[in-house]
Amino acid sequence: MFKYVRDDEPEYALLKDPVTSDKNRYGKEIKLTPVNDNGVSLRINGDERIGDNPNRTKQHAFHFTADNCIGCHACEAACSEKNDLPPHLSFRSVGYVEGGTYPNFTRMNISMACNHCDDPVCLKGCPTRAYTKHPEYGAVIQDPDICFGCGYCTWVCPYNAPQLDPVNGQVEKCNMCVDRLEVGLKPACVSACVGNALNFGVVENMPENREQIETQIPGFPDPSISNPNIRFQQVKSMPREVTRTDSMPVKYHKSNADGKYKPVVHKKNGEKKYWNVPRLSSRENPLVIFTLVTQAALGTFAAAFLGSLIGVESLQAMASSVMYVPLVVLALAFAALGLFMSTTHLGKPFRFYRGFNNLRHSPVSREGLGVVIFMAFGGFHMLSVLPENAVFQSLFGAALSGKFAGLANATGILSVLGGAGGLYYMYRCYRIPARPFWNHWQTGCSFVGSAAVLGAFTVAIIGVPYLLMSGGAYLALLNSLAPLMIFGLLLEGLGLYFHARQQASSEHEGAVSHYIQNTTFGKSYILRNCLLALNAVAIAALVIFAEASWVTLVMWTAVFVSVSVSALIGRALFYVLVVPTTMPGAFFWKNKGFEEHAREIGLAANPAVGVAMHTH
């Protein structure tokens, strides 16, 4: 060993696995390199030497014995001390589930850190490539210096392992204590466990005095999401139903079919409906704006360009008018505003350029690339049609008129394709198994519907005033755009209907989100749904019955305001309602209810409380 271990190191702290299996239960090789390859240096503290552990390039894993855990939090303290963590971060945390009634009341403690999965979704999701799955010990290690603090890895991880630090604007996580492994020691949390609940070694090896190496435990999310490298023992009997001690309205019910505990709704807050409008505001507000204005930009350009291309008369007239260039510029400005808002959501906004580092895997990287392609070709399209603009011709003459028609069509089509790709990967960003409320095709209906209705209204906002001033047929333009508006509203409404049906009957956290939607935000949810239906009916009625008059314009304006309010409420609900598949918390620690209360009363200002304000 290249680093000395103290002579009196206790036996339980030493890492040793003399005999190991060849494959894990997921069918993957436990040895992660060729037979005679013992890996490369991890350059810990700049040291180039390699540890002499013969199993160095085999997948290692934590083993947690719930029957032994006494909830003392010694593992948390050891992890925090070793990694010099601030009070609001914890790479390992202890939560609880409990059930039964006196005198047969049972509490089970769960200690959880990163599981260094076979299929690390954090690695694939991270747009900056801050994650690496090392063949050395199978450790998934994240580099905070590469991270720009988008927090997407915290969304996709089912186990709440990556920790977003709002103070420093970056994510950090458990690194498996690879520096200790290199000198033959188990991770700090394992060595500190006073109840012999934690152990560590090559995956699938059963520690001494254990009889189980299961992959699930009550409160632990579905292991099929990422094939986690953690093994459990829990042989003491538990009630058929256990609840969480944190504020999350989730409980776990033992299924008759397979004997597994599955999350169901715990209606601890009753059935009463509330508005809770202030709580619609969240840390994701920049993403609310980003998604809406970007979708509006894509819809605006697609409606104006494609409508003209396929021969819609009023849109052809719009495309040949002096207002077409300003309309394209407005669409590009919306897209730029969206990208700017997404940048403000980052913990380190000036590192936004790193968002394109993981085009191979990350939908976040691909989403950004799609929007950039839309803007680039949209800009070329605007320059191509500029010589046809009457204002341009009055200033510079008409010598270039008609010479770039083919280029204008080509760049317009490429811009639409880029925007469609960006919209698709925007949708893929939210198809996350760890967030079941989002993981539904309704998300796509919502995004496409918003693009259609907001894009059509944006074209109308530019076109109608111009036609009014020039004496044109503004009602024809509105009537041409109305089917696109109605399509967008109906598409979103259809998705919401089937989404609600599926979530209400599900056995995952999506059902909990549905419960919160119908109670905590029940009145806001009903308002949004009513506005969706009323807006579709109002637009259809205006097309059928309205005549050109100021009353019609007022009614169209009212519908636009209503559509905007509905879109804002719906998108805010989209972000605040999602309940992730995270591990149970404690009464204070890892408890969203306590964190919100601490922020409301100012207790979060005391760093020792361990609750950081949403700022950096």
Report on this structure.
The chain is α+β, with helices and mostly antiparallel strands. It has 2 domains: 255 residues, Alpha-Beta Plaits, CATH 3.30.70; 300 residues, Formate dehydrogenase/DMSO reductase fold (Up-down Bundle). 43% of the residues lie in helices and 9% in strands. Strand 4 and strand 5 form a beta hairpin. The longest helix has 31 residues. The relative contact order is 0.12. The mean pLDDT is 92.
Tally of helical segments = 17
If you compute it from the alpha carbons, what radius of gyration comes out, rounded to the nearest whole angstrom? 28 Å
Shape: elongated
Number of strands: 12
Proportion of residues in extended strands: 5-15%
- SS class: alpha+beta
Count of domain modules: 2
According to CATH, what is the class of the largest domain? Mainly Alpha
Give a short account of the largest sheet: 5 strands, antiparallel
Distance between the termini: 41 Å
Enumerate the strands of the largest sheet in spatial order, edge to edge or round the barrel: 3-2-10-11-12
- Reported CATH architecture of the largest domain: Up-down Bundle
Low-confidence stretches: none
User: Can you give the helix content as a percent range?
Assistant: 40-55%
- The CATH fourth-level homologous superfamily of the largest domain: Formate dehydrogenase/DMSO reductase domain
Average pLDDT taken over every residue: 92
CATH topology (fold) name of the largest domain: Formate dehydrogenase/DMSO reductase fold
Order of helices and strands: EHEEHEEHEEHHEEEEEHHHHHHHHHHHH
